[in-house]
Amino acid sequence: MVSFVVVLLVVIALIAAVINGENSSIKRSDFPDGFLFGVSTSSYQIEGGYLEDGKSLNNWDVFALYPGGIEKGENGFIADDHYHRYLKDIEIVQSLGVDAYRFSISWARVLPRGRFGEVNPNGIMFYNKILDELVLRGIKPFVTIFHHDIPQELEDRYGSWLSPLMQEDYVHFAETCFKNFGDRVKNWITINEPNLFAQMGYQNGIYPPARCSQPFGYCSAGNSDIEPLIVMHNLLLAHGKAVRLYRKDYQSEQDGLVGIVLNCIMYEPMTDDDLDKEAANRALAFDIGWVLDPLIFGNYPSEMRKYLGNQLPRFSVAESNYIRDGIDFIGVNHYATLYAKGCIHSSSSCSLTGNRSIKGFVDFSTEKDGVPIGESTGIDVMKVVPRGIGEVIEYLNKRYHNKPTFVTENGYSEPEVQDQVPIILHDDKRIEFHKAYMSSIAQAIRNGADVRGYFLWTLMDDFEWNHGYLLKFGLYYVDRKTLNRIPKLSARWYQDFLINNTLASNIQLAVS
Ligand code: BGC
User: What is the Å distance from ligand 1's center to 442 Cα?
Assistant: First the structure.
């Protein structure tokens, strides 16, 4: 009897693991032929060289000096010193056996004064060297044009993304990239996470330019209800103009594709109640539809138009025509799954955590009846919920008729590792995390989703925005004193997964 119960429990646990996408026997061959595996980085988070060879100050260089903006008062002035170590870093990328590498171009390095000054030849040279090296080594570059960092001059002159003038600056930057790098770049990403950028910079005010209003935060200026909507409007029009330009003047010769990357949180209803189901759908529409509905269908989601009324900017007919059908692929950055609870119909207003307006009048939680949705990571709202990535892919698949999709970021930071190097290097949890998330993606593909690649965040521990160097997402640990890169167990696992296609269960840690 006892053994029957044990067997039953094991079977139940296995079924639950499979349902949750936690199938640890994931292999490269579980993905279709031509599926790309890669790693992702971004310029400000790794480059350093913050005022070298003509680069100007950017928004993060300036923000880093605000008291309290970044954990321990850190900054990206040196970061991982990738600016000087890029060759070694590309060697590391190649040694992993990846097919592709996603990185971003520092706007202030290429156009230190935006449209108001010259192109910086040293900036062009730097990215040319990176691209040449990648192509030489057979690694496909996925290049993000704008990943959170802008020349500070554009902020100071006209308030950057709050002004339509920024659209012209963005198009000028994008064209500079197409002209100089487009012969080698077949996959462009216009903007990284416009939805997160608009929220962090203009609703919560915790990213530069640190604008917000109460009760969302205590900033010196801003309007948390309105400004994120204006910023998004300018981002979408900028994207649309750049894509049109690429398709008209560059695509036939350069033969590349252009996509956009979103922060894709999965929202699950807190209960079976219809109001919570509606809330979860509304949250998805206000977060993902906010960006993708205009770029695919030509207008904001009906849910947003209904609830936001005149607060929501409008597209003219001409604008709607040039932004619609404006992406070749969707980039998914996935880090969190949250429970959603409707608050629009309740007599009490939504909580003060910033979930009104741009989040669709929905309250969120990482817990149901006191039970966390998943295991903790280094960031409170990011719990380990592997099924979430499959669910969000299936949502995209349905809403956008199976548009080609790449998972452009997915990563794990452990809670409270501080500087305990041996623990940091033995990162079994990161390995389990990626295996489980990959299984969930493989299942979504088997269900019919057109997912074409998986980029792990990130190559090496880096400057994690407000968290400085405290949070660690990397396959490589970076010693902050020597800046040496040291492989974690997960780097060995990824390499083994990619090159040997084994279960990689017995990898020994070899620290060089
Ligand atoms: C961003 C990355 C960031 C990562 C982990 C994403 O929102 O694109 O730049 O480092 O999340 O926090």
Answer: 23
